[in-house]
Amino acid sequence: MDRYLPRDPRLRAALLVVGGFVLLGIVTQFVMPGSTGGSRGTPAAILFTGLCSGLVSALPACGMILIYRTLRVINFTQTALGVGGAVLTFNFIQYTPVPFPIAFLLGLVLSTLVGVVVGIVGLRFFKSSRLFYTVITIILAQLLSGLSGQFANLPFFPPQDQRTSSDQALAQNIDRLLPLQGFTFNVGDLDIRFGFAEIFSIEVAIVALVGLALFLRYTRSGVAVRALAENSERASLLGIGVGKLSILVWGLAGLLSGIGVTLNGAITIPANATTVDLTVLLSVLTAAVLAAFVNIPVAVGASVGLGILEQSFTFSYKNDEDLFNVVLFLLIAAGLLFQRRKGRSERAELTSWAGAEESRPIPKELAGISTVVWARRGLIAVGVIALVVFPFVVSTGRIVLAGVIALNAIGVMSLVVLTGWAGQVSLGQYGFITIGAVVGGALTSRANIPFWFAVPAATAVTAAVAVLVGIPALRIKGLFLLVATFGFATAVQTTIFNDKYFDWLLPDAVDRPTFFFLNFEDEKSMYFLCVASFFLAIVVVNNLRKSRTGRTLIALRENEPNVQSFGINALRTKLVAFAISGGMAGFAGAILAHHQRGITADTFPLRRNLELFVQAVFGGVSSVGGALLGSAFFQISNDLIDSQLVFILFNSSFPFLILIAYPGGLISMVMAGRDSVLRIIAQRRQIVVPSLFADYDATALERRLIPLGDPLTNSGLAALPTNERFVMESDLYQGKGERIIDKLGPTRESDETVAIGAAARSMADEGEL
What we know:
Blueprint: H1 9-31, H2 44-71, H3 83-95, H4 100-122, H5 130-148, H6 165-172, E1 184-185, E2 194-195, H7 196-218, H8 220-230, H9 232-237, H10 242-267, H11 278-290, H12 296-316, H13 324-337, H14 364-367, H15 370-393, H16 396-421, H17 429-445, H18 451-473, H19 479-495, H20 499-502, E3 514-515, E4 518-519, H21 523-546, H22 548-558, H23 560-564, H24 570-595, H25 607-619, H26 624-640, H27 644-661, H28 666-684, H29 701-704, E5 733-734, E6 738-739, H30 751-765
């Protein structure tokens, strides 16, 4: 289709936008059924509502495109950047006499500052992999979601416990908080009242979009940003301050997000603007995808079109609003599949995950040493004993938590196969866990199939679904695969729990399994079943890593063309990775459904898809041990930390700091400590182990060696008192540490001292010294 479009990019964008709106008009007026009992088509008032919401969402979509064009990063913090400003704005107008225009400007200043701070932090990852940088934005989005709500607790706002129900009701009725309360109007025949919020939103959105266009075209900074977007390396060679410009772009992204999020709360309710809604982020991502992440005018048109389509869909199908997320997923998949990327500057997003190094085994030179062997056996024994004794010494709640950690670690391990080895990033892995849980629970509760047959069946079904998802995903690589899988996860999480469509599948209650005389209704027994399942998954993953398939997956991640030159079918191998990964996730989900004795939407929230991926990257996405560490860290901190704010801050800031120091994750930090111990053993035994010193400076190696042992305290110089350690009998010294040559009188110098001094002066005069 690309060849039938004009070559001029402006004309092409105009044709795409016009064609899209023509198709949208046909769909909304002739395809949509409209309200029940009414005429077919969407009323003008609904279209106007969609126009307002579309223009508002176009602003964060433009910010996302700016970040991508300049940094080649998909910014998952885009909607989170403006939440703090929206919280500040609505609290000002509700609890203080500050007028709305001033409060709105203060909120925009805060959103811009948040963007600048994120940009400064991002300088640390400026030269990192674009995928790794994108993961950092996911972590920062979680951090901002926890921090933004704290702006409501500033000293000039009333405390939360002093806010009454009337205050909350007032916050819902936003029109009473805005200027021109009596100004209302209708659009069309439908009885929907519009007012200041809609007019103000349209005007501000248009002014912001026009201002952005003028800035990029006619200012020096704007031209520099455009140059950076075309080729960052060439812009740097021309003397353009790439780092400062990236901070400027982040500030613009924060400003656009602040405007969009605040206005969204103004035309709906403030609650929609004061929390990070992942479905809103999906709408912004969809508009950016339809614009190929490069074309701002197309992004504006796509946002307006999506806003109108969503309002029309909601009006026509009031009981099926969640299905619109499926529409967004299909639009994302179609938009990514039919786009063609050209140019060297756009190849950065087409890379697979290579941001985490694989954990090295113990060097073969030290593997047979008794100290290493017994230390390893001791650690394994301690771990096994701890696992066995644990359920008998802790409370029931801790036992349940341990089972969840084991099952969650299986889900993280599925990302080790898909992302760590095959290089295919995914934000939809918890969607596969959800499918496995629903299918496994339905087979045992509705079909009365025994647990021991239902779990393998659910594993196979989930693996088949993963292959279906993987077929189009193989044409979508790198950063764009994150967007596609996130859309898939959103579609799954928001539709599979809809009783209207899946009431025949969703189980009301799920019973614990039994096996001969064993009854897993007891929490201790279920704990051991979860741990056994975890070890079974470890055996499968380790054997896969040692097999030809595992080695081929890693080779494909590193150099796909080279592997294909040996006659290996890359498509089939990647689909195997999707099947194994999806099957493992479904396996964990099926057991989790029985562990929790039921399936609810609260057990499988959408945010868990992002959290699972962060756990994998934080723990070490290429290591089985990293999967366990990442899962255990987040689950244990969730159980130990009572405050939701402290939990969000800790679970976001600590992984962020660890990834700065150790991009390979927590497992790389553990492996660094292990290697330090192995270096001590190698030095004490005088064994040459090149792999342990491969990353050391050879010229400074002697200064970095760890001492062979502790200093002796009862022999040698250390055995002498401090005032006697450096006292020696010599003709040059007299008494305890008193030099003879330091005395003023020459008569006190010995003949030997005079002779040595004369010889030294003679040699200095002749130039020999």
